[in-house]
Specification:
The structure is a single chain. This protein has 509 residues and is mostly helical. It has one domain (27-493): Up-down Bundle (Amino acid/polyamine transporter I), CATH 1.20.1740. 63% of the residues lie in helices and 4% in strands. The chain is built from 18 helices and six strands. Strand 5 (239-240) and strand 6 form a beta hairpin. The longest helix is centred in the N-terminal third of the chain and has 36 residues, at 102-137. The radius of gyration is 22 Å and the shape is globular. It starts with 9 loop residues before the first helix and ends in a 16-residue tail after the last helix.
Length: 509
């Protein structure tokens, strides 16, 4: 039982980097930044902005995005320090293994599976909506029973919609899964093309929309107040809406936080970076700063073009241009939404299998399956297939709003744990080489933990219970399987390890 808190040494992690069963190192700082931007900009800005500005924060959503971005910057600095120290696949899971021990590493890894899988399903749902909008403008419509998820979510209850499945969401998940199995270089090239189209569309919104801003629309700037804090669904500070949920600038940050999900995925590709100690920190921080600036500019344009109360909840960006007398821009923005959300889905589904791969290499999940790297493509193809099946089922059956909040709380939980891990690692191993050092420790990690907990506290109580349920399932799996099969645990118990993944020694890198 004592081995459940055993830690993997940093020296051992670095030795594992030289294992022949490694992924190809082909990603440079520009590609990693592109992957980060691709993961961040997408469903959040295209879907969540309208609802948050209209009903929660008003024009003060600009400050909400700044607060959420600042929270991510605190976490990003901590991620960058770890990624430069231990440039192997696995992200926060790997970092937790070296600082908090195996049990906490399992909890973080299991939480990351939730973040990437549920986040991918959420994004696939959003992609389906934009794709069907493009089809509608071309005069094409799918049968109603294939247009949306089988369930909707209303007042805490799942209700049948009458639709069988969200077919476009399932199809895009299958397509992205096949692209990812083919290889990381091909995935990155495809993603770079999507990112270019997406950023071009965002810049189009900013520079064209700026000419239609009416400063009077910014008054009142914070119609719902500056706070909006609750605890397990009980409002603590600020206003509430008719349903009793908090509203205000901070509440807006908690809702639109999904727009930032994905920057941490850059660190999961440390094993595929050409110079990970340099490139991973650049990729993480550069992508986050770029996206924060773009987000604030987009919100400034939208709330300046249209009074916040008149914004569309479902397609705020396209609708704002329509209300401004620019209907021709609607199709451009809808098409850009498809491209943007595609790149988010690609990067999220690219990251989940890497976490599975890291956990399998440690024996916490079946290594012969999840740690199998394809002999030709050098990708974790079985892990990718498993994630693809899981995501396609959720995307086809579950509604976007229920998935959205669950992805938010899972991500914030992981970010807070990484910030805490930096504090622990500075105490445990203060002299280890850190090519990138998080500045102002312990202030930055503590600010990261505090801001993550603040935003988590502003989410509805149902999301906490779902997170606890997911982690509970994970603990059952850990004590039933992972604890007994852990390679580190077997070594400490003096047991022979017979089920390590096969090492492909003759593969081309």
């Amino acid at each position: 039982m004592k081995h459940i808190f055993a830690k993997k040494s940093l020296k051992r992690l670095l030795e594992e980097m030289h294992d022949d069963n490694r992924l190809r190192r082909v990603l440079g700082p520009i590609t990693l930044t592109s992957l980060g931007v691709g993961a961040i900009i997408g469903a959040g800005i295209f879907v969540a902005t309208g609802a948050a500005a209209k009903s929660v924060a008003g024009p003060a959503l600009m400050v909400s995005y700044a607060l959420a971005g600042l929270t991510c910057i605190f976490a990003a600095l901590c991620y960058a320090e770890f990624a430069s120290m231990a440039p192997v696949a696995g992200s926060a899971y790997t970092y937790a293994y070296t600082t908090m021990g195996e049990l906490f590493a399992w909890i973080i890894g299991w939480d990351l599976v939730l973040e990437y899988a549920v986040g991918s399903a959420t994004v696939a749902n959003g992609w389906s909506g934009y794709f069907q909008s493009v089809l509608a403008k071309l005069g094409i419509a799918l049968p109603e029973y294939l247009q949306k998820a089988h369930y909707t979510y209303d007042n805490g209850h799942f209700l049948a919609t009458g639709s069988w499945v969200n077919l476009p969401a399932i199809c895009i998940v299958i397509l992205v899964t096949l692209i990812l199995i083919k290889g990381i270089r091909e995935s990155a090239t495809f993603n770079a093309a999507m990112v270019f189209l997406k950023v071009a569309a965002v810049l189009f919104v900013i520079f064209v929309g700026a000419f239609y801003i009416n400063p009077a629309n910014y008054i009142p700037f914070a119609p719902f107040g500056w706070t909006g804090i609750s605890f397990f669904g009980v409002p603590m500070f600020g206003q509430t809406n008719a349903g009793g949920d908090p509203v205000g600038m901070i509440a807006g940050s908690a809702i639109i936080f999904f727009a930032y999900i994905g920057f941490d995925s850059v660190s999961t590709h440390a094993e595929e970076a050409v110079n990970p100690k340099r490139d991973i920190p650049i990729g993480i921080i550069a992508s986050l700063v770029i996206c924060t600036v773009l987000y604030i500019a987009v919100v400034a344009v939208l709330t300046g073009m249209v009074p916040y109360a008149q914004l569309s909840k479902d397609a705020a960006v396209a609708d704002a241009f329509k209300q401004a007398g620019l209907p021709w821009a609607e199709f451009i923005i809808a098409a850009a939404g498809v491209a943007g959300i595609t790149s988010v889905l690609l990067v999220m589904m690219l990251s989940g299998p890497r976490v599975f791969l890291a956990m399998a290499r440690d024996g916490l999940i079946p290594a012969k399956f999840f740690a199998d790297v394809h002999p030709k493509f050098r990708t974790p193809w079985k892990s990718t297939m498993a994630i693809g099946v899981f995501v396609s089922v959720m995307a086809g059956l579950l509604p976007i709003d229920a998935l959205l909040h669950l992805a938010n709380i899972g991500t914030l939980f992981a970010f807070a744990m990484v910030c805490g891990a930096v504090l622990i690692m500075r105490k445990l191993d203060p002299h280890v080489e850190r090519p990138f050092r998080c500045p102002w420790v312990p202030l930055i990690p503590l600010l990261g933990i505090g801001s993550c907990l603040l935003l988590m506290a502003s989410l509805p109580a149902a999301n906490w219970w779902r997170l606890f349920a997911w982690l509970g399932i994970g603990l059952v799996i850990y004590f039933a399987y992972s604890r007994k099969h852990s390679f580190l645990g077997k070594e400490l118990r003096g047991e022979k390890i017979t089920d390590k993944p096969v090492i492909h020694v003759n593969l081309k890198h």
